[in-house]
Specification:
Blueprint lengths: L14 H9 L18 H5 L6 H7 L12 H16 L3 E2 L7 E5 L12 E9 L10 E7 L22 H19 L7 E7 L7 H8 L8 E7 L10 E4 L7 H12 L3 E4 L8 H5 L5 E5 L18 H20 L30 E3 L8 E6 L4 H5 L6 E5 L2 E2 L3 H9 L6 E8 L2 E8 L7
Parallel strand pairs: 4-5, 4-6, 6-9, 7-8
Antiparallel strand pairs: 1-3, 2-3, 3-5, 7-9, 10-11, 11-12, 12-13, 12-14, 14-15
Helix pairs in contact: 3-5, 5-9, 7-9
Bound molecules: zinc ion.
Length: about 450
């Protein structure tokens, strides 16, 4: 029986595990990273392409085998990112004057984390202002994905390469474009560090390691900008989380969006199922850029031809603009604590996530309830007839006002509980009887 583990963003039901891991990393690294393999020559895949699309095309190629953290395919991805940073003339920010920082992947909390060692890929653009160069702005995106469908896949039973073009080759591509643009100058006042994280899909492992061992050493990190899934802008909007984590964010984000011609939906919360959470937990103001989930999310079909190339370029332009602004605006951002619900640690490994419904939320804000972008095949929700587009309003006696309320409702139940789930389907109110499942055995 395949055992599935919660993995980032799939469902808000899964959010807590990721966050629990931050406080509970086992530091016993397994044996070294994956066996050597011959990586594809970038020019053979990216001929005729420029950033950001060239990076998506390379990272999402089958030869990289889904970039599972610690795997040979992920090593090829990391090598490619490091070579790009070097080509731009950025300074290595990893260990021993390299671009790499080793990250132990084994975890006492997440028994399904890949064994061995992953690598964060880190590059520095030094600030131009002597007084501000010791203040650091972090721009990050995870580059690992699900390999051939390990835990976290939404295509159960199917063993196939999950290329993760949107999740998150797109985010890495956008930070590379940003790095290239800012490295050409004019150079911002503060120092900017670009980080491609490993181990996000297994529970923010790379970013949790980074905040404990930052390239900035004892210098302050004054802002963190995270890109996770920015390749499907389409008709938009671009969702920007975290504007409530600093007083000035909105005044920086909105003009940048207008200049880039991007419609944005801003959200205040600084905690979410991706790497920015690691930084907000350390009192760093954060943003998370996100073009929403879709039917290919965490499936083998998340491929590069489906990327909105023009949209990705506009998002990248906006990110470069916001990054340059926050790196030069004086004074530094004013942190606001308490934007959103902090993740609550589970009492024991494998516990505290509540019962399993199988819903995949649509992250576009709605007036009330939680709109679903999908329902996991074979899940209790799917069996009961829950569908994409449904807006969940209640689970049992728990009213569902937002994602947090839905998380709470599921956490209040256990596997085997039979509950009525009330949803709005178009104009119609529908009640479905669901036998909730066991998250830990799926
Ligand atoms: Zn992701």
């Amino acid at each position: 029986m395949g055992v599935k583990v919660p993995c980032m963003i799939t469902t808000f039901e899964r959010v807590p595990l990721a966050v629990v891991l931050i406080g509970g990393l086992a530091l016993a690294a397994g044996p070294g990273a994956a066996a050597a393999q011959t990586c594809p020559e970038p020019a053979s895949l990216t001929a005729g392409l420029t950033l950001p699309m060239a990076a998506v095309r390379y990272l999402a190629d089958d030869a990289l085998d889904g970039r599972l953290a610690g795997s040979a395919g992920e090593q090829c991805a990391g090598d490619y990112i490091a070579r790009e940073f070097a080509r731009m003339g950025l300074r290595p920010g990893g260990e021993h004057d390299t671009f790499f920082q080793a990250v132990p992947l084994a975890s006492a909390i997440n028994p399904h984390a890949p064994a061995g060692t992953g690598r964060n890929v880190i590059a520095i653009l030094d600030g131009a202002d002597d007084r501000l160069t010791h203040e650091w702005v972090v721009v990050g995106a995870h580059y690992d994905h699900l390999g051939e469908g390990a835990p976290g896949s939404l295509a159960p039973g199917e063993r196939a390469i999950h290329n993760g073009a949107d999740d998150n080759a797109s985010g890495v591509a956008a930070i590379l474009w940003t790095a290239e643009t800012l490295a050409r100058g004019p150079r911002p006042a503060r120092t900017i560090v670009f980080v491609a994280f490993t181990g996000e899909e297994s529970g923010l492992l790379g970013s949790a390691h980074y905040v404990a061992h930052p390239a900035s050493g004892g210098d302050p990190m004054v802002a963190m900008i995270n890109l996770d899934m920015v390749g499907r802008l389409g008709a938009g909007p671009l969702i920007v989380y975290g504007v409530g984590t600093a007083e000035e964010w909105t005044s920086l984000v909105e003009p940048a969006a207008a200049r880039a011609g991007v419609a944005v939906a801003t959200r205040t919360e600084g905690y979410g199922p991706s790497d920015h959470t690691s930084f907000y937990l350390k009192d760093v103001p954060v943003l998370h850029f996100f073009t929403n989930t879709h039917g290919d999310y965490h499936k083998p079909s998340d491929d590069w031809p489906k990327i909105d190339t023009a949209g990705l370029s506009r998002v990248a332009a906006m990110v470069a603009d916001v990054t340059a602004a926050v790196a030069s605006t004086r004074p530094a951002l004013t942190l606001r604590r308490g934007a959103g619900e902090p993740p609550r640690p589970a009492s024991e490994p494998g516990q505290g996530y509540g019962a399993w419904l199988g819903s995949v939320p649509d992250f576009t804000p709605v007036d009330r309830g939680v709109k679903l972008s999908g329902v996991t095949v074979g899940s209790p929700g799917a069996t009961a007839g829950l569908r994409a587009g449904d807006v969940v309003l209640a689970i049992g006696t728990h009213e569902v006002t937002d994602l947090q309320a839905m998380t709470d409702a599921l956490r209040a139940h256990k596997a085997g509980d039979v509950v009525d789930v009330r949803v709005l389907r178009g104009d119609e109110m529908v009640t479905l009887r669901v036998t909730l499942g066991d998250r830990s055995t799926r």
